Amino acid sequence: MRGVVGVQYLIHTLGCQMNERDSEIMAGQLETMGYTAAASEEQADLIIINTCAVRASAEDHAFGHVGRLKQLKEAKPSMTLAVAGCMAQEPGTIAWLKKHAPHVDLVFGTHNLHQLPRLLDEASERDEMLVEVWKSAGDSLAEHVPSRRRDGVRAHVNIIYGCDKFCTYCIVPFTRGRERSRAMTDILREVQALAREGYQEVMFLGQNVNSYGHDLDPKVDLADLLEAVEEVDGIRWVHYMTPHPRDFSDRLLEVIGASQKISRQLHLPLQAGSNPILRRMNRKYTREQYMALIDRARAAIADVSFTTDIIVGFPGETEQDFEQTLEMVREIRFDSAFTFMYSPREGTPAARWEGRDPVPNPVKKDRLNRLMELQYEISLEANQGLIGKSMVVLVEGVSKKNDSVWAGRSQTGKVVLVDRVPGIDLTDRFVPVHIDAAKTFYLSGSVTGDPLGAPSALGHALPLLQS
Ligand code: 5AD
Ligand code: SF4
Questions:
Q1: Cα-to-centroid distance, 173 and ligand 1 (Å)
Q2: Domain end call among 340, 366, 384
Q3: Ligand 2 pocket member 246 (CB < 6 A)
Q4: Which of 21, 154, 272, 320 could form a disulfide with 201 if both were Cys (CB 3.0 to 4.6 A apart)?
Q5: Do 315 and 349 have their domain in common?
Q6: Considering the domain boundaries, does residue 467 fall inside one?
Q7: What are phi and psi of 464, to 5 degrees?
Q8: Are residues 124 and 44 in the same domain?
Q9: Residue 215 predicted with pLDDT over 70
Q10: What pLDDT was estimated at residue 138?
Q11: What's the total number of domains in the chain?
Q12: What is the pLDDT of residues 232-286, one digit of tens each?
């Protein structure tokens, strides 16, 4: 690996938290080589686009960005342009880049991002695009690769890579490969080190976190991991993303219910509310089983709240199917929902059915609007129910839209705007807040006491709030 001096990098990250974590690992390797973060594309000597393949809109966004960078590359030929992430795992992307974007210097995938230093060396010695994408992960997981986490007190920690579920609409099992769990000892060592560095919140990541550990010897599960992390001093909040409704054991619910640290917000992607659609999606649960899980969770976890992902316009979805989705949304009353129009992904079974039995685009749009309208009404009511309550908020900084308030999040993931107290910086502090008002997408309130615990050791020397 060659060291570099005064060379600047910029990483654009599209898509999910797994990609954000991958970008942190790319940044860590670059900073170990001597790169520093660039403030703009014009200043960067290396630009990496870390792409997402989950829907066509994300892909179009990445292609558009790569296209726009052609001019910059022509003006500054010494600049290196790299494309990484889930799209790089798709053969169609490589063909497109070769044809339409020969100004790209390097393409690497999700399984070999730990090779970045060597790949940059090789790309710099070539005149044409270097494509190095592993079809699958190697035998052993790449542990101990440096990473540069973003500032703050929240850290993302990978626990399981890949997905074996093969939902028929989803490209992820093809771009991220088979499920591979990290050893629990490695995860706990990482969390302990994070706590020593001053991080106070961890988000465990995986495409399917409740499959965690089934491939380890001896087998462990997510409940074991969450129970162990409860014991790590200094970690105040624990989240995990994303679980599958199918593998939610009673023990996992009990562990969450008994915990002081684990989020009581369950993100349970429903995807659809009709059994024939769920079957064709290969979700492996029925609406009745999903409802039973909601009931089990309500019984096991005090103050539990639910959020979800829903797709409308899956091939063959009828109006009656869609109404069954609306009915479930009305019955469960999710706090919020990520809602998507079905987007065919080449190589998946549903993309073939889309050719025979598509839901027309205007119908997809209409269903999305109706679903969002219903969900917004429910979200507003759920938020209004919190007026007058107190909750702890992790302040992330001054709101970008309104500098008289701080913006933060509750442990259940709600955005909370907090009235600023002059002369005090509460960034990265956990503060008790009284909720005074509620809107569809956020709550607002005022600070009622001192921040909890000591300030983080991450460089924010903060005065305590005087009450
Ligand atoms: N079309 C639309 N939405 C999709 N998702 C995954 N694949 C597709 C697709 N082909 C949604 C699912 C998933 C979320 C991350 O993205 O709802 O839970
Ligand atoms: Fe995709 Fe289904 Fe795996 Fe989630 S569980 S990543 S939706 S295949």
A1: 12
A2: 384
A3: no
A4: 154
A5: yes
A6: no
A7: -75, 155
A8: yes
A9: yes
A10: 73
A11: 3
A12: 999 999 999 999 999 899 999 999 999 999 999 999 999 999 999 999 999 999 9
- Tell me, what's the pLDDT at 66? 96
Confirm if 50 and 26 have CB atoms less than 8 A apart. Answer: yes
Give yes or no for a contact between 50 and 182, defined as CB atoms under 8 angstroms apart: no
Which residue among 14, 166, 170 is best mutated to probe the pocket of ligand 1, counting the most ligand atoms within 8 A of its Cβ? 170
Q: Residue 260's domain is classified under what CATH number? A: 3.80.30.20
**Which tens digit of pLDDT belongs to each residue from 358-382?**
999 999 999 999 999 999 999 999 9
> Distance between CA 416 and CA 52 in Å, rounded?
28
Angle at 406 between CA 403 and CA 411, to 5 degrees: 155
Residue with CA at minimum distance from ligand 2 atom 5: 165
Residues in CB range of 323: below 8 A, 6 or more apart: none
Which tokens in the block code for residue 31? 């900073």
Q: Which of 463, 400, 383, 390 is nearest to 429 (CA)?
A: 463
Tokens at 125, concatenated: 């010695």
**Distance (Å) from CA 174 to ligand 1 centroid:** 14
Instruction: Indicate whether 147 belongs to any domain.
Output: no
Domain interval for residue 326: 154-384
Which residues, listed in sequence order, are joined to residue 267 by a DSSP beta bridge?
307
Q: Are residues 207 and 257 in the same domain?
A: yes
